[in-house]
Amino acid sequence: MRNGHLDRTVIVTVGTTAAVAISIALISTDDVLKNQLIAVSQTVTAWFKHDILGRPIPSPPSKPPQTGDKLALEIVSPGGVEQLRLIPVPPGATTTGYNVARRTKLLFSTSRKDIVKVNVSHFSVNFADICIRQGLYESAIRNVGYPIVPGFDISGVVSSVPPGCKDFKVGDEVYGATLFGGYSQVVGVPANQLRKIPKGVTPAGAASLPAVSLTAIHALVIAGFPPLGMSKMKLGTNRTVLVHSASGGVGGMLVQFAKKCGAERVVGVVGRKEKVEYCKGLGCDVVVCKEGKSKAEWWKEVEEGNEGRGFQAVFDANGVETIKSSYDHLDMTGRLVVYGFHTNMTHSTSLNPISWLKMLWGAMRMPSFDAMMMCLDSRGLLGFNLSFFENETDLIGQYFDVLNGWIEEGIKIPKINLFDMTEVGKAHELIQSGKSKGKIVIRT
Ligand SMILES: *[C@@H]1O[C@H](CO)[C@@H](O)[C@H](O)[C@H]1NC(C)=O
Ligand SMILES: *[C@@H]1O[C@H](CO)[C@@H](O)[C@H](O)[C@H]1NC(C)=O
Ligand SMILES: *[C@@H]1O[C@H](CO)[C@@H](O)[C@H](O)[C@H]1NC(C)=O
Ligand SMILES: *[C@@H]1O[C@H](CO)[C@@H](O)[C@H](O)[C@H]1NC(C)=O
Ligand SMILES: CC(=O)N[C@H]1CO[C@H](CO)[C@@H](O)[C@@H]1O
């Protein structure tokens, strides 16, 4: 279609979709719906210009003409990578998470006494950032709104500490988590969400860890595999777990941490042959590769890998593709933990109307679970995502301590793909393509 005759029906469909989306957006009072509709209409328009009319996509972001002291990256409005823009941070200000200052992307002053300022050297890109850019991340919309500076993971050097702060001093190399605001050269972070970078870990490596690791630790805790020392309960022996996408960001951490939390056997599932060895290196006892196999075939291998028994825990971020079967492969008393719906997010880089329809179709096919059956089976289904962080400061503090201890003992840090701040569009496209290996980290 790129080279030539425009298909009339396509134009009419696109025009109508965009017009309907814009009109609903204008009359809608629901922020989330509104943003999603804006995202749909913007991405449909971008797709139309690029794929149908053959116009080049602008490759943002370029440096702003007048740079301030420091820079941050913001998403102007829901849409494609063309919405990413570099902005100057006013002198003395920082970007910040929404738990520090709600509905603002920059922090000038705060009543909070625990804010440490960090000159950021690296931050990581997570799939959630793509969801924010597409207008699909509810807590970003509710707590910040657009424009928004996304970003959860940072590392860098402490540039100022609040009075009385004993944990850090100016010049300390630290890493940590922020609830948005991480795509920046200077971030204000509560001390509780920061730790010193353990010896032997690079700043880029440290910036790749918090979001995926804290997600993995929380998943294990709610699955009944609390890190040793966090629970006084005596746990049964011979317990096995299944990790989908075992070579992924969270998956790779789940595999390593499950062993540390007392799992006897870890079965990992991967999509490609070249990832099998990597997962064995992480500690999987059995790795099942889906490549070239039917669903029934690879599930059979999973069963054999667990000697026909059910799993005490299954960790699944695939979405409709596997949720139901994952549940069916739980042991009595087992728990299925869902922390995302990746296979059914769109993977095409220019979001076209077809991928939006596919997402909708995926949502419609999401299985439902019968509470009474869950009681009778004693099986559980649990879901969560990073948005719970805000008021759970004690819990997060403990998770961070556990993680820091494990990093000191030596965990495998994912392979890092480094990009510059001006290449963030490329970084987003890579993570969205589903073809990236390891973590994507941006150096500032
Ligand atoms: C996480 O929660 C936010 C709402 O705060 C939601 O918009 C987002 O889609 C959730 N992510 C996943 C993977 O469920
Ligand atoms: C942080 O960045 C500012 C501005 O670039 C610089 O003046 C300051 O020395 C840096 N602080 C540290 C501890 O590196
Ligand atoms: C653990 O499970 C395996 C396989 O089912 C079994 O052979 C073994 O005896 C079990 N060990 C314990 C301590 O229950
Ligand atoms: C956290 O607490 C604040 C203040 O009580 C409240 O407004 C906010 O909704 C809470 N956030 C969550 C995610 O529960
Ligand atoms: C609607 C949709 O996108 N469904 C897809 C969900 O993921 C599975 C596995 O990748 C696909 O087979 C479905 O087509």
Report a brief summary of the structure.
By secondary structure, the protein is of the alpha/beta class. It has helices at residues 8-27, 31-52, 127-133, 138-143, 203-207, 210-222, 249-260, 276-282, 295-305, 323-328, 353-364, 371-377, 393-409, 424-433, and strands spanning 70-75, 84-89, 94-96, 106-107, 115-125, 153-160, 173-177, 186-190, 194-196, 240-243, 265-270, 286-289, 311-316, 330-338, 380-383, 416-420, 439-443.
Please describe the structure with a list of short key phrases separated by commas or semicolons:
single chain, 444 residues, alpha/beta, Quinone Oxidoreductase, Chain A, domain 1, Rossmann fold, 3 domains, nine-stranded mixed sheet, six-stranded parallel sheet, 14 helices, binds 2-acetamido-2-deoxy-beta-D-glucopyranose
Helicity, in percent? 25-40%
Distance between the termini: 39 Å
Number of domains: 3
Bound molecules: 2-acetamido-2-deoxy-beta-D-glucopyranose
In CATH terms, the superfamily of the largest domain is NAD(P)-binding Rossmann-like Domain
What fold name goes in the CATH topology slot of the largest domain? Rossmann fold
Query: What does the largest sheet look like?
Result: 9 strands, mixed
Number of strands: 17
Known CATH architecture of the largest domain: 3-Layer(aba) Sandwich
Structural class: alpha/beta
Mean pLDDT across the residues is 85
Anisotropy-based shape: globular
Runs in which pLDDT lies below 50 for 5 or more consecutive residues are none
Radius of gyration: 22 Å
| Total number of helices | 14
Which CATH class of the largest domain applies here? Alpha Beta
Amount of beta strand: 15-25%
Domain Enoyl reductase (ER): 79-442
GO molecular function, one term: mRNA 3'-UTR AU-rich region binding
Transmembrane segments: 9-27
Protein name: Enoyl reductase (ER) domain-containing protein
